[in-house]
Amino acid sequence: MDGDGRSDLVAVDDEGKLRLYAGRGDGAVTGSPAVIGSGGWAGASVSHRGDWTGNGTEDVVARVGTELRVYPNRGDGTLASPVRIGTGFPADSKVVSVGDATGDGHPDVIATLGDTLWLYAGDPAARPGVRSGVQIGTRGWSPMSLSAAGDADHDGRVDLFARDANDEKLWLYRGRGDGTFGERTEYGHGYGTGNRPLLAGAGDADGNGVADLWATTNEGTGTLMFYAGETNGAGDPVDGTRTTVGQSSWNTIRAIS
User: Which of 56, 130, 134, 135 could lock 120 by a disulfide, CB 3.0 to 4.6 Å apart?
Assistant: First the structure.
């Protein structure tokens, strides 16, 4: 987000403000976040994977109310005025900008609408903009919360994290390169909202070449954990060693990306 090439964390706090926690390159984040959105973010579904404006930095994509918006990054992590790119999204829909899932060089959005999963491909003719939605998942998505995984398995295709509220597992859905997702593998378990209220794909935040994860806990006043991605015996990406990278007050955070 801030142009230094390291994975950053974006969060919505309990005052409806948007914060930017700069990544340090080892999975940790700065303890002094910058406020990049002064208010109005309560209840928003926020993500920030993909350059929607072509200036070389990631932009914020959010469902705010029923609107889908792009907040252009000025290049230093601060945000310009939003551009509305979609309307009619239910207030409970989960929206994530995943990067280029279709392989056309433009970032895309994945969203849950009720129990179904939809692709909103980036529209190069209306940058920033999206094409009409295409349904890519028919059922079972209402209990899922989504997060961008990047290219977790190093096959050149964008993948997707989804947490199932029913079984507390975090699944990695492997991208096919055409905007759809195929085989899924278990990335980790024990990710119920009771003990891990919030989670977000961290990209490769520690530079080891495997997709990582951030998650909050209810310990004390709330901590932030970093899970360094590893690979299992089958070569699949899985969660690995966890480290506490935020010591307190994360229970005041309502969403992370």
Answer: 130
User: E strands, 190-246, where?
Assistant: 199-201, 213-216, 224-227, 230-231, 237-238, 242-246
Contact assessment for residue 71 and residue 85, using Cβ atoms and an 8 Å cutoff: no
Where do the domains of the chain lie, and which CATH numbers do they carry?
Answer: 9-256 (2.120.10)
DSSP, residue by residue, 72-89: -B-SSS-B---EEEE---
- How far apart, in whole angstroms, are the C-alpha atoms of residue 82 and residue 23? 24
CA atoms of 70 and 80, how far apart (whole Å)? 9
pLDDT tens for residues 112-163? 999 999 999 999 999 899 999 999 999 999 999 999 998 888 888 999 999 9
Q: Is 216 helix (H, G, I), strand (E, B) or coil?
A: strand
What torsion do the CA atoms of 200, 204, 207, 210 make, to the nearest 10 degrees? Answer: 110
Find all residues with CB under 8 Å of 39, minimum gap 6, and list them: 15, 16, 17
The C-alpha atoms of residue 192 and residue 198 are separated, in whole angstroms, by 9
What residue type is assigned to position 134 of the chain?
V
